[in-house]
Amino acid sequence: MSEVTLYTTNTCPYCAAAKSLLKAKGVSYNEISVQTSVEQRTIMMERSGRRTVPQIFIGERHIGGFDDMALLQQRGELDALLAG
Questions:
Q1: Among residues 17, 21, 25, which one has the least CA distance to residue 53?
Q2: Helix ranges (DSSP H) in 1-84
C-alpha cells in the first residue's frame, strides 16, 4: 500500500471529509497540520503548488484536494493508486 500524506488544518471541513473517506477504506495516513506551522505550510506549498488544504499525496504523487480525491473515487481509480 502506498503511503498517504495529508496536509490539514483543524477547522477544515474538506480535511475532515478526506480523513473520513480514507478511514472508511481502511487506509492509514500521515497527517501534517499546517495550522500553526509556517515551516510545514511552506513545505506543503512547495510540494503542491497550492495554498489551500487539504493537500493529498499518495506516495510522491500529488492528488490535489478532497474534491480531486473524491473524483478519483467516483471514477474507480483511487483504490489502484492506494494499492501502489
A1: 17
A2: 13-24, 38-48, 66-74, 78-83
pTM of the model: 0.95
Per-residue pLDDT at 1: 81
* pLDDT per residue as tens digits for the range 71-80: 999 999 999 9
Across 2-18, b (16+ Cβ under 10 Å) vs e yields eebbbbbeeebebbebb
Angle at 47 between CA 25 and CA 27, to 5 degrees: 10
Domain limits for position 37:
4-83
CATH number at residue 24: 3.40.30.10
3-class SS of residue 17: helix
Domain count for the chain: 1
> How do beta strands 4-8 and 55-58 pair?
antiparallel
